[in-house]
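B., you asked whether I could sanity-check this one before it goes into the benchmark set. Here's the sequence:
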Amino acid sequence: MIIPTYSPENNPIGYNSTITANATMDISAARDGLLMVITMEKAVKREGYEAAIAEWEALLDLLPDYKYDADGALREWAMNEYTENNNHRHLSHLYVAWPAYETQNNKALATAAKIALDNRDKYNTKDATAGHGWMHKALVSARLKQGEGVLSSLLPMMTDAGYYPSLMTDHDTNRRNHCYCTDTSFGVVASINEALLFSNTGEIELLPALPSDWQAGSIDGLMARTQVEVKHLSWNLLTGTTKATLFSRVDVNTIHLSASVPWTRVIVNGKEAQVHEGEMGKFIVLTLSEGIDVTAEFV
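And here's what the prediction gave me:
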């Protein structure tokens, strides 16, 4: 057990305190932190690192398992004694999707997270004005590859009273407190970036959560999490092409590159690339040299 834990500002139904046990957010954050330490130990290879990794992995094995509700949703608290409370704006239990990466290669967990997100949409009736709630939902939707969810999460702050004439943003959709707050002004940019580009060490996915309305477009200068700058990304669903120009900041940088829009082949600097098939779908493998542009066109 992890005790005490905290799932921000929310508490189980019938339980009066926000101080709880086994909050899913804290389990996921602990997993995320331990996995980062293990990765660093393997990279640095300091003296005695094998024994250190064994200790971290043993601690990882002690963390509680996630729990799932009767409808298959990822529960906010991994405790049979608690009853879920979905009448709340926070999505802290979806840390597994964002900012962590656990749902990327775990289809069952991704499905459970999607059901949990749907439950917030269904049952959150009193707590839907705060900009950070909408931005968090947009970021999670992007990681869960739900483009329509990204769009529907960004629009309330734009169509209501979230923006001032200066383009500074309010804390809420309805200016209930007339409070300047940057959650939306920064969150919109982050959400759009995540919808157009997913990346992690050694992998880049183009257009992971493209809203259906965004039939064509382009963006320049997205930095991926694998020491690669996507200098240019453009797409046109009407012609069936998606193009990305990649620029590596390190040498011998091998990445798996994929796209979430339909495609059958990829042209890399004028030559057709070999397509690989993995558990999560099709991809190509690129080994980038430092400072040299590589353009990949998905057709």
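One thing to flag: The first strand starts at residue 5 and ends at 6. Otherwise nothing jumped out at me.
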